[in-house]
Design a protein that fits this description.
212 residues; alpha+beta; Lipocalin; 2 domains; 10-stranded antiparallel β-sheet; 3-stranded antiparallel β-sheet; 2 helices; 13 strands; 16% helix; 43% strand
């Protein structure tokens, strides 16, 4: 390192010079001595802390803004309306269902259509009717339970021919976890009912045949 300067100032008084910074150390030179001192880093530390905090905040906001996995999965598995195997009219098959359907459930008929990404649902037995539309995006939506009653229901297309969902009454006294699946030939739908949300224990299988 080379340091240059004048060793004499006005009126013959000696003056000092400030040289370059070497490895974070400022070199100052006087005619009769060489002194080293470190600059103050308080302001620099505060600046770096503020920048770090800003980075953390931006990262958190980006994570919050990420799309819900349910939406992503639903979008990728949701078939085109014209190719949706669930669309059509279905009737209960009492002989194939387990446990055996009672007389009212044996008359069950369901019709499904699509309006864009919405599923339009209607069903009837001798005693009840249901009509509603729902978007199978994995979120809970309020729908009709039949008559004047309402339920909260969620559904999501896991594959083009398989839907998983949950339903619960407004008072929370009844809860259903289910999976609906259409056969590869598109002529049969099975509705599997489970005892818990983990879907490990099956308690019922309702079979529907395609009418049209």
């Amino acid at each position: 390192m080379e340091i240059s300067g004048s060793v004499s100032g006005m009126k013959g008084q000696a003056q000092s010079w400030v040289g370059p910074v070497v490895d974070g150390v400022v070199i100052s030179v006087k005619p009769d001595s060489v002194n080293c001192h470190r600059p103050r880093f308080g302001g620099y530390v505060k600046f770096r802390a503020m920048m770090l905090m800003r980075t953390v905040i931006v990262t958190i906001m980006m994570l919050i803004a990420l799309p819900n996995p349910s939406f992503t999965q639903s979008s990728s598995a949701l078939p085109e309306a014209a190719k949706d195997p669930f669309v059509g009219t279905w009737r209960a098959n009492a002989n194939k269902s387990s446990p055996k359907l009672d007389k009212n459930k044996a008359l069950y008929v369901r019709t499904i259509s699509r309006d864009g990404d919405d599923v339009v649902f209607s069903s009837r037995t001798k005693k009840t009717e249901k009509h509603y539309r729902i978007r199978c995006d994995g979120l809970f939506h309020r729908v009709s339970c039949g008559g004047d009653d309402s339920c909260t229901k969620s559904c999501i297309y896991k594959t083009a021919n398989r839907i998983e969902g949950e339903s619960t009454t407004d008072n929370g006294k009844q809860h259903w976890t289910w999976t609906e699946e259409v056969s590869s030939d598109g002529q049969e739908m099975r509705i599997y009912g489970y005892t818990a949300v983990d879907r490990k224990t099956l308690h019922s299988t309702e079979v529907l045949d395609r009418v049209k």
